[in-house]
Amino acid sequence: EPSTDEREKEDETQVPEESGRDETIVPNYQLARDKERIVIRPPNRFSYADLIYYALNAVEEMQDSEPKNFREALESIDCKDW
Question: Looking at the record, which segments are called Disordered (predicted)?
């Protein structure tokens, strides 16, 4: 049966080597509190939908500003242009 000294030597040899990174231990560090926050952005597909929505609204406003018939054209403020 191995002695306690031999067991301690075996335990020391089984300790993995350090990965080479220089890690500093910060007292009172909590990962949930101290980690860097990520920037939350909406997916790109929503920004495209906003562009389409804006374009459709702009076209609708342009259609509403045009007279629907000749009478509306003559009665509008811009009747000289018609």
Answer: 1-24
Supply 49's token pair: 């939908």
Q: Where are the domains of the chain?
A: 42-82
Which backbone phi and psi does 27 adopt, to 5 degrees?
Answer: -70, 145
d(CA 74, CA 1) in angstroms, rounded, equals: 112
CB 57 within 8 A of CB 65: no
Averaged over successive runs of 10 residues, the pLDDT of the chain (82 residues) comes to 58 54 71 82 77 88 79 85 74
pLDDT value at residue 17: 55
Q: Measure the CA–CA gap between 57 and 51, rounded to whole angstroms.
A: 10
Question: HEC string of 17-79?
Answer: CCCCCCCCCCCCCCHHHHCCCCCCCCCHHHHHHHHHHHHHHHHHHHHHHCCCCHHHHHHCCCH
